[in-house]
Amino acid sequence: MNLVTPELGLIFWQLVVFITVLFILSRYAWAPITTALKDREKSITEALSKAEEAKKEMLKLQSDNQKLLDDARLERDNMLKSAQKVANDMIEQAKAKAEVEYAKKLEDARRAIDTEKQAAVTEIKKQIAELSIDVARTLLKRELENPDKQVQLAADLIKDLKVN
Amino acid sequence: MRVFTIERFLKSFPINLVALILLGLPLCAWASGGEEEGEHKKFNPAELIMHHVGDAHEWHFATWGEGKEAVHITLPLPVILYTDHGFDVFMSSEFHHAKMVEHEHNGKKHHFQELKRGENTYLRSHEDKITLAGHGGTLYDFSITKNVASLFLSVTIMLLVFFSVAKGYKKNQGKAPSGIQSFFEPIILFVRDDIAKPSIGAKHEKYLPYLLTVFFFIWFNNLLGLFPGGANLTGNIAVTLSLAVMTFLITNLSGNRNYWGHIFSPPGVPAALLPIIVPIEIIGIFTKPFALTVRLFANITAGHIIILSLLSLIFIFQSAIVGVVSAAFSVALTFLELLVAILQAFIFTLLSAMYIGAAVEEHHHDHEEEHAHH
Q1: Which of A154, B11, B75, B120 has the greatest number of CB atoms lying within 10 Å of its CB?
Q2: Does residue A36 contact residue B173 with C-beta atoms inside 8 Å?
Q3: CB distance B360 to B254 below 8 Å
């Protein structure tokens, strides 16, 4: 068979077989393969963009979390501060109240002492007066046992009266 | 002889293993027909080479012994002939019992095997061409020749391989490819992304099945042709012509207005030049498939001829030293042929894609230019 002369039989078989194989492969191999490849490429692209989105979402969440944390910290500080203040106020108030009470008690005590003192002095005065009267009575009794002395006394008294 | 077989073994060791499984060839199929002629007859390298690169009505693997005691290991193939008396189908082994006759043609003596079947008498030439004895009568040869058998084998392998690949996509849906699928996926993607898409553009999907089929058909057959005992299918001009005609038909049947416009009234060409340009453009339609036909045929056949020539040197010189040297060269060339096998598949597919791309391309830019000129 000549090298450069195309043989009819081989052309016939080549065309028949090749076209048959082309149709079979197109339908049962190339179609599912190319579809699967395209689907896979699509799903990879989608997955990548989804991952990118998730990353962004994550960053957003993270910053949100930070904000929440900061807020919470601030709140805590505020709460602590106000609690401190309340506590201080309460102590101050208690102190003030205690002082007032103390002063009042002191005043009461002083007054009670004064009253008692007054009473005591009055009592002493009374007793002194009674004593003095007793003494005077005793003295007068003794003095006035003789009439001279009674005159004398009257004279003295008159003299005193005159001075007054 | 020893060097020869070892060389053949080393030449394609890994694919030989595959060959054994795929082709189911007997071990002795490695031996070549070089020793066929023996010492009594002068060794004829041209005959040996033509026998190997050409087609035949039987698949010859090896011959042991010489002369009348020679044992030929061949696979007989069906001969299908269409004559005036209808189809005649028989096995090529029937020629073994044929009578040898001598006919003179243009002053030269030619030997033929003569086979009588019914009303027809067939003559089989030394080059394995079957003709009718006597004068007149039509004869069309639709035989399952060595190349046709190899064609069947190659498409069977292709169908098995790509069905298995397609099955992989069903099995590994939404998952990473595995096995044979992961071997072929980058190649399929290469054909799609580096051949079809850049050459054709948006409409590439319609032509992708053809491009993939033609790419793998040429590649698989180029590789099968490199097996010892393999047929030279893609180095046969009938095959490359058929492939080129298919590209030609697809190109011209999908040609749009813009494509035909460029051929019959090329934009920007002065009217005076049209009588020259238009015939050139029309010839161009046909030179493209012609170039495709010849490029593939010549590249693959040349590769086979070079390797066979180097091996023939051993039998011409009958020297061990030449054997070692030419074996080494053959090994190197076989590696080169492995590269050429995929390269030529790529070139044929790329050019087909480019021709199709030119036929379906929409040229808005040129119209604007045209308006600007007027």
Answers
A1: B11
A2: yes
A3: yes
For chain B, the maximum distance between any two Cα atoms, rounded to a whole number of angstroms, is 83
- What is the layout of strands, in order, in the sheet containing B86-91? B86-91, B78-83, B139-141
Tens of pLDDT along B72-117? 888 899 999 998 888 989 998 888 888 888 887 777 888 888 888 8
Residue type, B4: F
Of the partner residues B159, B209, B239, the one whose CB lies closest to the CB of residue A30: B209
Residue with tokens 């003794």: A142
With contact defined as beta carbons under 8 Å apart, do B345 and B218 qualify? yes
- Residue B114's DSSP bridge partners are B99, B123
State whether A33 and B301 contact (CB < 8 Å). no
Same domain for B90 and B165, yes or no, is: no
Q: Do residues B95 and B166 share a domain? A: no
Number of H helices, E strands in chain A: 3, 0
- Distance, in Å, from the CA atom of B374 to the CA atom of B369, rounded to the nearest integer, reads 9
Say if the Cβ atoms of B50 and A34 lie within 8 Å. no
> Which of B83, B80, B78 has the alpha carbon at shortest distance from B119?
B83
Instruction: Pinpoint the alpha helices (H) of B265-373.
Output: 274-317, 320-360, 364-373
Residues of B in contact with A16 (CB under 8 A): none
Q: Give whole-number Cα distances, A71 to A46, A77, B152, B267, in Å.
A: 37, 10, 78, 74
Domain boundary at B127, B143, B159, which? B143
**Nearest-CA neighbor of B209 among B246, B240, B172, B178?**
B246
Distance of CA B283 to the CA centre of its chain: 26
- Domain holding B352, by residue range, is 147-373
B84 and B219 assigned to the same domain: no
Decide if B258 contacts B300 (C-beta within 8 A): no
Q: Are the CB atoms for B239 and B31 separated by under 8 Å? A: no
Q: Which of A4, A16, A18 to mutate to test the interface with B (most CBs of B within 10 A)?
A: A18
B157, B166 in Cβ contact below 8 A? no
Task: For residues B179 and B89, state if they share a domain.
Answer: no
| Model confidence pLDDT, tens digit, residues B228-283 | 888 999 999 999 999 999 999 999 999 888 888 888 888 888 888 888 889 999 99
Which of B143, B172, B200 is the last residue in one of the domains?
A: B143
ipTM reported for the complex, 2 dp: 0.82
